[in-house]
Each structure stands twice: as C-alpha cells, then as structure tokens.
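Lecture notes, continued. The same structure-token format from the folding unit now serves as the input rather than the output. Read the line below as a description of shape only.
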C-alpha cells in the first residue's frame, strides 16, 4: 500500500509553534475553520471570520497560516493522517486472525458484521472533518493545484479500499471473477460523496447509508448462501 500523499508539501507554511499559548491559538483556528467551512462553504468564509470565531487577532492567523487555502490544506492533511493510522482490516467474529485456508464455516452474518464495523470506524474518523471536505470540494473546482492533490488523495484512498476488498475476496464464498479494482474505485468515490452529504444527515440516516454500503459490498463480493 502506497504512502499517503503529503498535501502540505511545497506549501511554505509558517514554522510550527512551540509555545503552549500559540498551540492553543492554532487549535482554535482549526476548530473555527471546520465550523465555518461547514456552515458557509469555502468562498464565503474569510480569514477575518475565522479570527473572530476563534477569538484571535488577524495578525495571529497569518503567523500560523498564510491564507485560508493553507488552513484548508492543513485540515485535509490531518484527515489523511488519521485515515492512514486507521486499521481497515475487517474485524469481528467473521474475520478471525488465522490463514485464509482455515476460514471454513464462517457465517454470512459474521462477515457482514465485521464489514459494517469497519465502515463505521472509518466514518467515525471522517465526520469531524465534514466542513473541511465540503470546502475542499468547492475550492478544488477553481484551483488546479488542489485538483491535482485531490486526484492523488483519491488514488491513495482507492488503493486502501482495494486492499480491503482483495482481503475479503480470498474468503470462502467469494464470487469468482469480480473486478475488485473497479469495485474499489466506484465505492471509494461513493464514500467521499457520502462524506460530502453527511453534514446534513441525522445519525439514523447516516447509519442507514452505512448499512446500505455494507449490503452493497457484501453482495458484490460474495455469493448468496444456498
């Protein structure tokens, strides 16, 4: 699996603060940006808005980020870092830690439960960055540099999804002849699209989407019992 893209490479960010007070200001700026990006989008959010929401001086903003674009990149890079640390191997009784050749008699309910638990873990990390991804989608439409980074980002996440699907496809009961790479490409774009829409969803609705995603993936990869 390839290393995650570094969205901050070549962006000439100001030096990382070391003092506790400066670190707290930076954290408040990030929180304010996430909220404002979710509420207003990228274009309608200004550095002044972020400073007011974070209760810091405008000058302090520029000590941490040279522009709202840099702040957006920092937030999305944080999201990728969290995703890179996320264990995407399905877990649960349906996915025991023993060789594939020994996986006999695992029930479809167990497999589904493990798959759903994996998707729920992934979305629990993503949801706090809903505002950043909404702003990212908007900004990438008119910023070729961000669009290029977005392609790198999607290539990396698609690769991670494909690795999971290849793992699942080795299990007993898998459908022969599945184009795992194409399925991973489609589902990765679906996951990012769902993340973009999740800001307006209630928890119950999001859970329904996760259930539907589990159903889709399971039936794409596995034959129906009997």
């Amino acid at each position: 699996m390839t290393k995650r893209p570094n969205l901050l490479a070549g962006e000439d960010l100001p030096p990382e603060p070391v003092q506790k007070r400066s670190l707290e200001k930076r954290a408040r700026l990030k929180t304010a940006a996430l909220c404002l990006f979710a509420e207003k989008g990228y274009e309608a959010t200004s550095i002044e808005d972020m400073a007011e929401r974070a209760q810091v001086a405008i000058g302090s903003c520029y000590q941490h980020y040279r522009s709202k674009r840099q702040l957006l990149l920092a937030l999305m890079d944080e999201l990728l870092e969290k995703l890179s640390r996320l264990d995407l191997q399905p877990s649960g009784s349906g996915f025991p830690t023993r060789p594939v050749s020994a996986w006999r008699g695992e029930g479809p309910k167990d497999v589904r439960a493990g798959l759903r638990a994996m998707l729920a873990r992934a979305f629990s990390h993503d949801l706090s960055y809903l505002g950043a991804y909404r702003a990212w989608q908007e900004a990438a439409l008119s910023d070729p540099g961000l669009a290029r980074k977005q392609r790198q980002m999607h290539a990396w996440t698609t690769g991670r999804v494909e690795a999971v699907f290849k793992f699942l496809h080795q299990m007993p009961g898998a459908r022969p002849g599945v184009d795992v790479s194409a399925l991973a490409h489609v589902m990765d774009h679906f996951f990012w699209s769902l993340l973009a829409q999740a800001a307006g969803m209630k928890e119950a609705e999001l859970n329904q989407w996760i259930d539907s995603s589990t159903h889709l993936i399971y039936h794409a990869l596995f034959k129906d019992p009997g």
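Point for the exam: Confidence is low (pLDDT under 50) at residues 92-106.
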